[in-house]
Task: structure prediction
Amino acid sequence: MQRNPNHTTIVTVEKVIEETPTVRTLVYSDDVMPNVLPGQFAMVWIPGVNELPMSVMISQESGKAAFTVRKHGAASTGLFNIQPGQKIGIRGPYGNSFDIKAGKLLLVGGGTGLVPMMRLITNLTPSHDVTLLIGAKTKDEVFFEDLANQLLKDNKHQVLVSTDDGSYGENGFVTDLVEKLVSENHFDGVYVCGPEKMMYKTVQSAHSRGIFVQASLERMMKCGVGICGSCCIGEDLVCHDGTIFDGEHLSKNKEFGYFHRNKAGILENY
Amino acid sequence: MQRNPNHTTIVTVEKVIEETPTVRTLVYSDDVMPNVLPGQFAMVWIPGVNELPMSVMISQESGKAAFTVRKHGAASTGLFNIQPGQKIGIRGPYGNSFDIKAGKLLLVGGGTGLVPMMRLITNLTPSHDVTLLIGAKTKDEVFFEDLANQLLKDNKHQVLVSTDDGSYGENGFVTDLVEKLVSENHFDGVYVCGPEKMMYKTVQSAHSRGIFVQASLERMMKCGVGICGSCCIGEDLVCHDGTIFDGEHLSKNKEFGYFHRNKAGILENY
Amino acid sequence: MNDTFKKGTRESNQLLYSKLGSIYTVDTNLATSIGSINLERPVMLASGILGISLDVFNRLYRSGAGAVVTKSLSTEPWEGYPNPTIFGLGGGGWINAVGLSNPGAANFAKMIEPNKDVPIVVSLVGSVPEDFEQMVKEFENCKVTAYELNLSCPHVAKVGLEVGDDPELVKQIVSSVKNTTNVPVIAKVGLGTTHYLKTVETAIDSGVDAITAINTVRAMAIDVETQRPILSNKFGGLSGTPIKPIALRCVYEISSKFDIPIIGCGGVSTWEDAIEFFLAGASAIQLGSAIGDNWIDVFSQINNGISDYMKKKNFSTIKEMVGLAKKS
Amino acid sequence: MNDTFKKGTRESNQLLYSKLGSIYTVDTNLATSIGSINLERPVMLASGILGISLDVFNRLYRSGAGAVVTKSLSTEPWEGYPNPTIFGLGGGGWINAVGLSNPGAANFAKMIEPNKDVPIVVSLVGSVPEDFEQMVKEFENCKVTAYELNLSCPHVAKVGLEVGDDPELVKQIVSSVKNTTNVPVIAKVGLGTTHYLKTVETAIDSGVDAITAINTVRAMAIDVETQRPILSNKFGGLSGTPIKPIALRCVYEISSKFDIPIIGCGGVSTWEDAIEFFLAGASAIQLGSAIGDNWIDVFSQINNGISDYMKKKNFSTIKEMVGLAKKS
Ligand SMILES: Cc1cc2nc3c(=O)[nH]c(=O)nc-3n(C[C@H](O)[C@H](O)[C@H](O)COP(=O)(O)OP(=O)(O)OC[C@H]3O[C@@H](n4cnc5c(N)ncnc54)[C@H](O)[C@@H]3O)c2cc1C
Ligand SMILES: Cc1cc2nc3c(=O)[nH]c(=O)nc-3n(C[C@H](O)[C@H](O)[C@H](O)COP(=O)(O)OP(=O)(O)OC[C@H]3O[C@@H](n4cnc5c(N)ncnc54)[C@H](O)[C@@H]3O)c2cc1C
Ligand SMILES: Cc1cc2nc3c(=O)[nH]c(=O)nc-3n(C[C@H](O)[C@H](O)[C@H](O)COP(=O)(O)O)c2cc1C
Ligand SMILES: Cc1cc2nc3c(=O)[nH]c(=O)nc-3n(C[C@H](O)[C@H](O)[C@H](O)COP(=O)(O)O)c2cc1C
Ligand code: FES
Ligand code: FES
Result:
């Protein structure tokens, strides 16, 4: 019998990798999650705590997948604190996936927004020429740089890091770097995931130049399946119509980059 | 999607064949019923009247099946009175089927007990040598004789009729004819359906001589699927474990031939 | 495996966009009326489903929904319960304890003020008549097709069923809303701890214009691996296909006992389900959970199915079907 | 197609017979107790399912049932409703209105008199205390493990829920049965028109030894082709997977509120379902509808699943699991 994606499946966290002081990767074995498409997410239940949407992180071991979580509020801290041997629940995968263009690609990830980028990379072919931008506030918060270089070893590629405080890599906002790169180079596709303002600016930089661009959006998610409405952005439901939208579509959306809805469904400014 | 056998499917009766003054065959088109195994039955809903178990009769037109019903109490009379164009509901097929032995076969049918025999015949090969006995009270009640001869035209076969009053064919009970035939001939398999006493005697005649014999039993049926228990005979549920049982098994049953249960579940004598 | 991942291969955004632009049409007369509420199509969005944004309402309306019912609104914004708030049982069954999260009536009224096209039914939840009166006033400048009083949420204390199970409170609430507005008022009932037919009777006696039956049925799910209830609230409401035979029974019982327009709700996912509800006595239906299984295409699918059925059976209006099963 | 016809290729009768001869065994301790009722295995046959012959009871017991509950018996034989009496919804859901057909207590008692092996729970239905007293007396010469008072059939007038919904009558019936026999008495409750927890409370106050929750839930199905209710009685009781989340909730609510042994019933078809009920507070479970989908093999399947689970989770008795979900 096929597994019901809406029925929580319990998995045991087998390994916890410390990425930065506030980011950890939790590895577990599963039948379904190792093979999801780049951009797909799961609803992750931390028993007794909460349930959160999480991009499905790759694992380099076969038959395994992972979540990479940043410690933030109570829920994500609950997940962050899970120890090897402890159980979490997962349902999904949910959401659509990136449309991978041929040729020269620009990937932009901020913080845990790098997670879908890692899976996107594993779905590329050696003929892809890849530039990955990693944005972080400060040196301590940079992660996945080595992993990305390793995953891209058979590709023509460059991995660039920018920190807001200049403590590592380029100095400044990653979106400035994006603007510079797209104005000076030809790209066949741009993919971005991270804080909304970062995605908004990246989409603007690319779309205004007619470059194909896709962003993976985050919104408050309760059901993940297109029932509850909590993830709506304009007339789209991020969990079901997205999470990935392309520049053309986003350019017509009045909320993207400016508003999101809180737990009560009230529009709030970013 | 596969049709749910327990969900009533509505079919339209297309043709009504008058077999005798009290027996009619109702022909309808359907996807499932034309292909059931010999011995299987359906639960037939006569809207506003009742629902009855009925052996699935063959139709000689492809894509069609039929029920052959004897007018008796209110329910069967309701079915008997259905006119072409009227709708009935069917669910099933239910029950098991005859194990067809190779060689020389004796088929014994009384009244509408002939219905499974007709389908059994269509499942035989030309190498079968077939004797079909048709038992009836009187000449008026004989039916399916021509049909059987026609269906068996490529086989070595004989169709014998016996009437209790001798008004047609052999004179006497069909079970006397059975006893005579099995005592004088070799048979590889005996199949019987009809009134319980007739089945009981036929099973005795054959089983006591070590001949493989199967009888298709009738009991009060409400659910047809092995839930309600109304069709029980000893520890068997006729709808689910049967309707077809073989001589070996029946010879150990204390109720076969003697008792059946009424609508309240009380044992009554035959 | 295939099914799980098909979702990933989405239609290009362009296609999606153009699809959304078109408006659902059908060549039969699907119009229905629930008392004085006239709808072009009989399939409504149930309360609490995708119901917090006017843009989404527009989209659903264009997809074929005859009307949309808003998330149940309260006087103040509510965050609802923490996740997990929803659990899929498979086979079209769901349990939820969203906990009536909503932006509050005032915020919501402001949001839908621009609405001109979509028939919006505003669902309200509260504990005392004053709550309801106050909220109705917030909507004075909005195009509101009807108010639906949620007397039947099975998993939030002090509102919902705790109100619906108290006949005196039902009477006060219905009467006060009726006195506050001329917009039609619907009472939404469910299986509570007192006889729901009593609630229906009280609501009717107090002047309600129509009944929606039913809400979710109180239920729960426990995870055997971790040995705990799955929903953060432990209890939730069962919706979807499992409750359809129960909802259908309620519609049949209400329509047999009272002369009041009924909206059937609970487990509708196919056109056959919708027809069953009409035959049992409903003038329109609402659906929610089916969207989780068939997405919003379910509106056009059901409308088309109803349309084909009407042609085949020679019905020229929905009305002709309403309550037919009681005649047999 | 294949599935439909597989049923036709039955095991040879010889095989069937020898299979029946063997007795289900398992290498873990599946014993449980419901108050003073001790069972070797926790999975019971629910009332009304295959329950009219001692031979069948024997077969079910050998197949792994821990006990069998009889069809609900009345003082007089009842024919029940005409067919159609049962309707399969698919996906493990059923609606039935058999109408409590049964041979009457006296006939039934005579039939089970020879019983020595099978733990038989005698289910009784009636309208007044005298009915129950009289029936209990019929069974004086029988090995009866417990009586189960059916206070909750949702589709037969004057008995079942009409009794369960009347606290005064519940009190009288339970008290009089308790005064008539020393055999443990179980009250079977369901979702009626009054709060079922009230019925539970009344039954407990009147001395009942255990509670079975729940019975079927009143429901209906309408055929869209002929536009009529399918069951001859129009209304029936919904059973099987659709009601499991509701039944589970009731068990959890009862066990949270009262200190009484509980038998969970409603939609159990897998070992996970059984475990969920234990975790919610049930000491044993009953099942019926699952037999319609998985045949009587369901008893050994569930027992084996429970056994494996207990090994994996290091439970040495069922008791250890009972109510665990309430601790989280
Ligand atoms: C599709 C998707 C994929 C994501 N992938 C990752 C990932 O791989 N790694 C990662 O660390 N984070 C990821 N997130 C973000 C994550 O779900 C949480 O939003 C974040 O961890 C903050 O949660 P919190 O409980 O700590 O926040 P809280 O302190 O409880 O709340 C802070 C804010 O977090 C957001 N939030 C809280 N709960 C949710 C929720 N259920 N859904 C959406 N937003 C919520 C809200 O904006 C809230 O106001 C993803 C979010 C989405 C929508
Ligand atoms: C597997 C099976 C296949 C059958 N196939 C045929 C067939 O092809 N043609 C045919 O004419 N008849 C068939 N019958 C018999 C048929 O189902 C009815 O029993 C018979 O028609 C009498 O019904 P009635 O309503 O007229 O009887 P009533 O007057 O209502 O009752 C007379 C007796 O008929 C029997 N009966 C009534 N209802 C049922 C029921 N639901 N299940 C079993 N017995 C019942 C009872 O013994 C009852 O006492 C079959 C029965 C079974 C069990
Ligand atoms: C996620 C979710 C949220 C709901 N929220 C509300 C609500 O706010 N108000 C309300 O009256 N009903 C609410 N309901 C109940 C639905 O409106 C509907 O009555 C119920 O789901 C049965 O219909 P369905 O089977 O088509 O989903 C909610 C149901 C779901 C599944
Ligand atoms: C065909 C049928 C007959 C039933 N008859 C009775 C009955 O006589 N007495 C009773 O207490 N419950 C009766 N029930 C209810 C069951 O005992 C049980 O409570 C209900 O079916 C829920 O369990 P399930 O989902 O495992 O079937 C009947 C159920 C079915 C399906
Ligand atoms: S999270 Fe519920 S609709 Fe998207
Ligand atoms: S007819 Fe119900 S068990 Fe056989």
Remarks:
- Residues 297-313 of chain C form the longest helix (17 residues).
- Residues 1-19 of chain C have pLDDT under 50 and may be disordered.
